[in-house]
Amino acid sequence: MSAFAEFVPPPECPVFEPSWEDFSDPLGFINKIRPIAEKTGICKIRPPQDWQPPFACDVRNFRFTPRVQRLNELEALTRIKLNFLDQIAKFWELQGSKIRFPHVERKLLDLYQLSKIVSSEGGFETVCKEKLWSKVASRMGYPPGKGTGSLLRSHYERILYPYELFQTGATLTVSGAECCLTAFYIIIGRKTTECPPLEDRHLKAQAFAIKMRPRKETLEVNFVSIDLYLCLVCGRGDEEDRLLLCDGCDDSYHTFCLVPPLQDVPKGDWRCPKCVAEECSKPREAFGFEQAVREYSLQSFGEMADHFKSDYFNMPVHMVPTELVEKEFWRLVSSIEEDVIVEYGADISSKDVGSGFPVRDGKRRLMGDEEDYANSGWNLNNMPVLEQSVLTHINVDISGMKVPWLYVGMCFSSFCWHIEDHWSYSINFLHWGEPKTWYGVPASAAEKLEAVMKKLAPELFDSQPDLLHQLVTIMNPNVLMEHGVPVYRTNQCAGEFVVTFPRAYHSGFNQGYNFAEAVNFCTADWLPMGRQCVAHYRRLHRYCVFSHEELLCKMAADPESLDVELAAAVFKEMQEMMDEETKLRQAVQEMGVLSSELEVFELVPDDERQCYKCKTTCFLSALTCSCSPDRLVCLHHAKDLCDCPLGDKCLRYRYDLEEFPSMLYGVKTRAQSYDTWAKRVTEALAADQKNKKDLIELKVLLEDAEDRKYPENALFRRLREMVKEAETCSSVAQLLLSRKQSRLRSESNRNRTKLTVDELKAFVEQLYRLPCIISQARQVKELLENVEDFHERAQVALSDEMPDSSKLQALLDLGSGLDVELPELPRLKQELQQARWLDEVRATLAEPHRVTLELMKRLIDSGVGLAPHHAVEKAMAELQEILTVSERWEDKARACLQARPRHSMATLESIVLEARNIPAYLPNILALREALQKAKEWTSKVEAIQNGSSYAYLDQLESLLARGRSIPVRLDPLAQVESQVAAARAWRERTARTFLKKNSTYTLLQVLSPRVDIGVYGNSKSKRKRVKELMEKERGGFDPDTLSDLEENHEEVRDPSTVVAAFKAKEQKEVESIHSLRAANLAKMAMADRIEEVKFCLCRKTASGFMLQCELCKDWFHGACVPLNSKDSKFLCPLCQRSRRPRLETILSLLVSLQKLPVRLPEGEALQCLTERAMSWQPLKIKLKDSEKKRKRKLERAEHHHMLMAAAAASGTSAMGDIRPPKSKDLKRVGLELGLGGKPKKKKLKINLEKNREMKQLAKRLAKEEKERKRKEKAAAKAEAIREGMEKRKEKKILDIPSKYDWSGAEDSNDENAVCAAKNCQRPCKDKVDWVQCDGGCDEWFHQVCVGVSCEMAENEDYICMDCSRKAFRSRKTCCLHPGPQFSSNKAL
C-alpha cells in the first residue's frame, strides 16, 4: 500500500444486545455468542438500556502518570524509516557533516523507500547501468517526464550509496606503510567503483588545487617528534600541517589521502573510518514508552486532552466525526514529517486507585442501587472469579488479569497489536467519555499476522524478537488486509463492553478523553488454548504469569466445585497433560537419572521454579543438579541443565505417577454425574397421577443441579420452571387458606389482583395438573363454599337503613380473609367509612376541649369525600358552623396578642369572657387568658415590692422586668421598673470603674467584700478552685452572691441586720486569716539555715535577687514577678491589693448616689459596710501613728543620753564616742538585698539594767503629757463624726450598719489592721478599747483587758509581756543580774 493512500476502514465486528435473561449470566452469554464472535476476534456487547453502573472512583484523589507516545514511532514501517534515517544522519555526523534530507516534488524524499526499491532492482550499479531511475521514480509515485529519475540518482549517489558500501562490511586493511581505504571513501558526485593507487591520490589532491585550512586539532609537531605521527594511508609523517587527528581514536590521516579529499575542515568532531564503523555497529536500545514527567488528576488530564483535540481539529471536541479522527490517526502514524506526541494513562491498577465499578471493600458505604452493581457478574471485579471462570481457582491477585486495570485516554492515544497473557479472554468497559476505536484479528489468523509483520519489518524483530509481546508496535490494518490478514473494527461508546477472544490480536486508539476498565477471564473452552500458549511461551523463552499445570491440578483436586462442562474440559486436559508427563519422566529415566524426590512446588515462589532454559514455571516435575542447587530445568530441556554426570542429577516431582489415576477418576465422576441426574428428572416430570413425586423431591433435584453446576439445557430449564410453578401454586393456595396470614399481609398484597370464582376453579384444575403433589388442593374447594356464604350475608347488611360499623367491619374482615375477588366488598367499605365518620363526629363533639380547628377541618375534609347520606350532611353543617365562629374569635385573639401598642387588661378580659362559651379548643384565646393571668400576677408583685418595708434587689427587678416585657399586655408600672433598673445598673458601672483595675479578674462584689482567698497561690484557675473549696467548707458564713436571692421565703437573708452581721463575721474571719498568714510569713525568716527550702513570691520559688516585702501579708516577692509602683511608698503584693483605692470623698459621693436609688444592690451594701469599716479605722490609725512617733522620739533621746553617759564613763575608750545607732531603713534595705524577710533587729548598747530603766523612765515622763492630750482630742473628734453620720442616715430603706466594729490593734505602726498579741484574746467590743504596749523588747500591742492591766498601771509602770519576762529570766540566770519593775510609764492608747 502506498504510504500516501487514504485509510479504508475494515468491516465491522458483530454487536450483541442481550435481553435481561441472557444478561443475568455473563459467562453463559459469552459462551452462547462464541461461535459467531470468535470468527472476528472481537465483538461488542451493548447492555440493556437500564443497566448503567455508577462511576465509583474517587475523582478528587485519583492521580496517575501517563505514558508518552510519539505517533510516528508506533507504526512498524514508520519506525523502520525513522531508524534508517537516524542511522544515515549518525553516519554522516560522525564524519563531521550534518546532512539535510532533500525534498522532491515539494515533499520530503523517502530515503528508506528509495533504498528498498533500488535494492529490489539490483542495486545502485545495476540501476545506473540499465538506466532504471525512471522506473524507480514511477514506483515511488512520482509523475513521469520531469527528470525526477536523475534527481533521485543524484540524491542516492550523494547520501545513500556511501552508506550502503559501508554496510557491506569492507574494512580498512594496513600492509606495512601502505593502507588501502574502504570503498566507502568514494568521490562524492563521481562514479568511482575502486580505490585509486596511493600515488594517484596525492596527484589527484594536487589537481584539485584546494586551499586546505588546518583544523584546530591539526598536529603541532617539531622536527624531533614528527616521525611519531604517521598517516595511516600513506605511512608518511611529512606535511604535518595537513595531518588530521581522529577525535575518537587519535589516529592521523593526511587530508589529501582521504578519498575524497577534504575540501574544508569539518565543523564538528571528525571520526576516522574505523571509528565510524565501530559507532554504527553498536546495537540500538529496545523501543518502549517513556513515562510523562507530570502527574495528572482526572480533571487536569481531561482539560489537557480536550484542549489538544479542539486545537488540533479547530472545532469543539464533540463535533469532530469519528471517521475523520480515524483517518487522521493512520495518516499521522505513517508520516515521518509530522511528529505528534500524546499521553495515555494506561495499565493503572484498580487496586491502587480504586475501580470504576462499586466494590465491597469496606472503604465506602454503598448507597442505593450500588449494591446491585457491586454484586453484578458484569462488574469487572467479579467476572474473573465467577464460578464458571477458571481464574477463580487461582488464589493470588494477578494485576491486569484478576485485578482490573484502568485506562485514561485522549485523542490519538493508542494501544498496539497484542494478545492477552496466556491467550485468555479480555473484556473492556468504557465508563464514560468519547469512543474507543478497536481493531481485531481472529485467532485463526494470529500466526499469519505475526508472519506478515515479521516480513514487513524484519529489522524490528531482529533487534526485539518478542516485539509483539511488548505492546509497542502498531501496523496499519489496510497493510495487513493487503497481505491476507482479516481485520475487523468497532467503535466502543460509553456504557458498552468489548470482548476479545483467546489469541485474538487487537489494537486501537481513543477518539478523545475517556475512561475505561479492563480485565481477563478464562472459561472451560480456553483450557486447550492455555496449554498451547504455554508450549508457545516455551519456544519463545517467555515467562509465564501462572503455572497452567498447577491450575489444572488444583481444579482436579476439588472436582465438586467445578461446573460440569468445566469438569469435562479439565478431565480431557488432565489426560493429555499426564500422558505427556509420563513420557517425559520415562525419557529422563532412560537418560540415566535415577534419583528422585518429592517437591511441593506450589510452596516455592514462581521466580525460583522457572526453567533455566525456557523460563516456563515448573510444577509437575523439574530436574536439578547438585552443582547448582538453585538452578532447575523442565523435563523438555533436561539436557540443558549442566554437563555433570546424570547420576548427580535429581528428578523433583509434585505427584507420583500412581496418583494421576485417582485425580482423573474424581474429575470423571463429576463429569458423568450429570447423566444420572438427567435420567431421574425425566422420570419425575413424566410421572402419572398415581406416581407423582412430592414437591420437595423436585426441589432436591434442582438444588443438586445448581450445586453441581450442571449446564442449563432444556431439561434443566424445564425442571426449574416446574418447581417454580409448583411453588407459586403452593404459595397461592396457602394464602387463600390462611386467614391469619391474610389479615397480616402488607398493603401491597392487599391491593393486588385477586382470584375470581371462575379463576379459583381453574386454579384447582392447575393444582392437579402439576407433576408433583400439592397438599392444599383439597382445602381449596372449601374456600368456594365460604365465598358463597359471605355473598348471602353481605346482601342482608347492605339492605339496612342505618349503617352499623361493627357489623360491616365483621363482614369486611371475613371477605378480606377469603383472598378472593368479591364484588360486595367495595360497597361494604363505602358504608363502613360513613358509619365510622359519624361515630367520630359524635365522639368529638361530646368533648369540647378536644375540638380543635384542625380537627374540625379534618373531619369536614374527610366528610366531603364520603358518599352522599342525610346523616353525613347534617353533621357537616354543624361542624361548619362551629368552625366559622371559632376562627373568627381566634383571629381576634391573635390580633390582640400581636397588637402594638398593647391592649389594656380590661379590654383583654372582656374578650376572654365573651369567648368562654364556644364549644371548641381555641389556643389563642387560651394564650390570651394566660397572658392576662400573668399580667395580674406581675402587677401584684410590683405593688407588693413598692408597698414593702424595704426596697427590692436589682436582680429581683431585672427578673420582673424580663417577665413583664414578655407579657403581651399593657403594664403601666413597667416603665418605672425599667428606669429604676437602668439607674441601678449605671451606679454599678460607675462604682466598677472607680474600684476595679483594668482587665481585673475580680468582680465588683468580690472587691468590696472581705477576702476569702487569703493564703491561696497559683494560677487563676487553681486559685478559683481553691477559693470555691474554702467557701464550701464555710457554707454557714457570708456569701455576697446570695444577698439578692429572689425567693420570697428567704427574708432573713435580705434583712439588713443579718447582712451586717454576716459581713462583720467575714471581716473578723479575714482579720484572723491575714494575721495567721503574716505570722506564717514572718516565721519563714527563722529558717535562715534552710532558707533555700522556703518558698516565696507568687511563683512559689526560693529567694533570689532583689526582693520586696508586702506591708500587709509580710511575704517576700521577687522584683521580676511583681509590678513596681514608684509612687507608692509602701509595697503591697498583687494578692493584697486587688483593686484601686479611691479617696474617701469619691466613695462618699457613690454612697450619696446609692441613697437616692430605690433599689437594693449587693454591691451597694458591701460598699456601705466597707465605708463604715474604713471610717472606724481612721481614728485608730491616727492614734497609732502618734504613739509610734512619740515612742521613737523618747527612745532616741534615751539612747542618745545613755550613749553619752557610757562614753563619759569609759575614759580610755575613744571608739565609744563614734558609735551611732544604725537607721532602720538602712537595716531593712540590707535585709531585702540579702533576700531575707522580717524586721531588722535593733542594735542595743551593752549597759547594765539600772541605767537602762532610768533612761526609759526619763523618756516616758517627757512624752506622757503630750500623749494624753492628743488621745483625748482624737476621741472627741471621732465621737462627733459618728454622731453626724447617724443623723444623716434615713429612717427607712437604708442599710443600718453599726457605728463600731471590733478591730484588733496593728502589729506595728505601719499595719492597717492591728491584732491583739495575747494568746487568749477576749476580743472586747466596746466604743472605747484600751491598749498597752510591751516594753520588754517585742513591742507587741495587747488589750488591757486581755493581759489584766488597769489604766493606772499602764500609765505609771512599764509593762513586760510573758514572752519577754521569760527571756529576761534566762538572761538573768546567765548574767546574774536582778530584774527591775515591769511597769514604769503610760502605754495606754
Give an overview of the whole structure:
This protein is an alpha+beta fold and 1389 residues long. It is 47% helix and 9% strand. The protein has 46 helices and 31 strands. The strands form ten sheets. It has a nine-stranded mixed β-sheet with strand order 1-2-19-16-21-14-13-4-11. It has a four-stranded antiparallel β-sheet with strand order 15-20-17-18, with no helix packed on it. Strands 22-25-23-24 form a four-stranded mixed β-sheet, covered by helices on one side. The chain is extended, with a radius of gyration of 59 Å. It starts with 14 loop residues before the first strand and ends in a 14-residue tail after the last helix.
Q: So what's the overall shape? A: extended
What helical percentage do the residues reach?
40-55%
Number of strands: 31
User: Which oligomerization state do the chains in this entry correspond to?
Assistant: single chain
- Amino-to-carboxy terminus distance: 135 Å
Put simply, the count of helices is 46
Show unreliable segments.
Answer: 170-227, 742-749, 1034-1038, 1040-1053, 1207-1249, 1288-1313, 1373-1389
Largest sheet: 9 strands, mixed
Radius of gyration: 59 Å
| Mean pLDDT across every amino acid position | 75
Beta-strand content estimate: 5-15%
Structural class of the helices, strands and pairings? alpha+beta
> How is the largest sheet built, in terms of strand order?
1-2-19-16-21-14-13-4-11
